[in-house]
Amino acid sequence: EVQLVESGGGLVQPGESLRLSCAASGFTFRIYWMNWVRQAPGKGLEWVAIISPDGSAKYYVDSVKGRFTISRDNSKNSLYLQMNSLRAEDTATYYCARDDYWGRSPYWGQGSLVTVSS
Amino acid sequence: DIVMTQTPLSLSVTPGQPASISCKSSQSLLHSDGKTFLYWYLQKPGQSPQLLIYEVSSRFSGVPDRFSGSGSGTDFTLKISRVEAEDVGVYYCMQGLSLRTFGGGTKVEIK
After folding, report:
1. How near does any CA of chain A get to the CA of B111, in Å?
2. Local structure of A96: helix, strand or coil
3. Strands B50-54, B38-43: parallel, antiparallel or unpaired by DSSP?
């Protein structure tokens, strides 16, 4: 069974950093594109970032470019999102999601809440 | 950047009645390989999103056949032939042609 479990969320102050993790199991992690998608409280879904199976290709939504870094460790079946210079508008539940084909993401974690507030 | 616009914002439907959601993209989602990268997701209350439809009209595994997708180019529609209580939630269209963009969502509730 495919499982994606996010962790690392919490309350931070504006300007601080946080690293989210997504532990994957039940599938061959190293062959799939992986995403981060976020949802601000009471709002819609926003795609944040995607990384290729070998980690060589990374793409971001404009609002996080230069502040967030997506990465993965295929030896640990883990996906990461390093978030720096956090802003109040980054407050959201962050989901990791696995593609099976480009654009098609059938598998999602339960989400990890990040709150940026002073 | 591709902008996705969904209408309506919300729908209140009597069980057993049909429902329809529109999604428009700011540019064609047709790829040179012939595929159209338009997807539909449902987020039920308190849950993570789940994939319903991929590439405009293909139902994902386990999705009931009362859900159908149609459209081409920039105009797409998700139809529920007979709404059931378990269909409540927020429906999102998403484009996958140029990275990813979600529509704003359509909330479906039961009358």
Report:
1. 22
2. strand
3. antiparallel
Q: What tens digit of pLDDT does each residue of A7-25 get?
A: 999 999 999 999 999 999 9
Model confidence pLDDT, tens digit, residues B38-88: 999 999 999 999 999 999 999 999 999 999 999 999 999 999 999 999 999
Task: Give residue for tokens 């293909």.
Answer: B58
Say if A102 is an interface residue toward chain B (CB within 8 Å): yes
d(CA A98, CA A6): 12
DSSP B29-75: -B-TTS-B-EEEEEE-TTS--EEEEETTTEEPTT--TTEEEEEETTE
Does B23 lie at the interface with A, CB-CB under 8 angstroms? no
Q: CA–CA distance from A44 to each of A62, B67, B99, B101 (Å)?
A: 17, 21, 17, 11
Rounded Cα distance, B40 and A35, in Å: 17
Tens digits of residue pLDDT in A40-61: 999 999 999 999 999 999 999 9
Using 50, 70 and 90 to split pLDDT, how confident is the model at A101?
A: confident
